[in-house]
Amino acid sequence: YWMAPELILGEDYGVTVDIWSLGITVIEMAEKRPPLFELLPLQALFLISRPEHEVKFSNPVSFSSELCDFLRACV
Q1: Which residue blocks in the chain are alpha helix, DSSP H?
Q2: What's the whole-model pTM score?
Q3: CA–CA dist 32, 70 (Å, integer)
């Protein structure tokens, strides 16, 4: 259910989708669960597709600034 915003919106698949997925994988590896895990899948898809929604670590201060910067660059 954690698809890149472009795919949720029905846009073409491109390299940005893979980069976004890498960012989500980083969150899953660091936090042992994907972002928005506590939501129902359709709620998560809706939020991900919103331009104002920022995907980030649930507690960014727990991670290095370099990792947080990398995540911001991916998503």
Answers
A1: 5-8, 15-31, 41-49, 65-74
A2: 0.85
A3: 18
